[in-house]
Amino acid sequence: MEEEKKIERLRAILDASAYTVILSGSGMMAECGYMGMKTPEKAYEIEKTYGVSPEDIFTSVYYNNRPAEFFKFYRDEVLQGDVDTSDTFRVAARMEQKGKLKCIITGNIYGYPQKAGCRNVINLHGSIHENICPHCGRKYPLEYIRASKKVPLCEDCSRVIRPQVALFGEMMDSQLMTRATWEIENADTLILLGTTLDSEVFSKYIKYFEGTNLVIIHKEHHHSDSRADLVIWDEPRNIFTKLGY
């Protein structure tokens, strides 16, 4: 009953909101069926298989100096996250179509919101679907990377193609950061899905929120939850599918 009341409150918040923004965290990868490489279980499995941690192999150092090893890891591990989307994002797409959602900001690189039909999405860490030759600028689809035997090379200039994803330790794209900050500054409702207020990815942006309602929907309790206006401890899809959009 308590959850039903919270869903009613969330529905009322969304109905009254003029500018709603969603922050989609790593918990949404699990909801879509993929265990992120930073989860303890996956990180242990990777280190056991490759002899190095994800933080070591998913870096520009490996990409530049050991491209064969980098792309084997990229194809066998990272691209496994290219799975189906979630009902949460399907509802979000309908909300966007009805003008009830202005933007989704995500740290995931798999395009889950876009697969569901969402259009205004900020991919803070880039996308596996964008791959560019750093020399001539030719663009390549994901399937070209997936089908490469060892190192995917540009067909025009034979340079190593660069997936447009942020590797560990790299600087964030300043334009994307500016866009994300603007969206959060202009939101009167901010919804965190599968993440917390202390998120390594989002905490630096959340501080710019000055709106009316800060909402968190995630499975596990977190000490920072008390700072939100509404918290629902459940999988986001269990909540969004009951909103009526």
TrEMBL record:
Keyword NAD: yes
Record's keyword terms, sorted: Metal-binding, NAD, Transferase, Zinc
SUPFAM superfamilies: DHS-like NAD/FAD-binding domain
Broad class of enzyme this protein falls into: transferase
Residues holding Zn(2+): 133, 136, 154, 157
Record domain Deacetylase sirtuin-type: where: 1-245
Record has Cell wall biogenesis/degradation as a keyword: no
Designated name of the protein: protein acetyllysine N-acetyltransferase
Gene source species: Blautia celeris
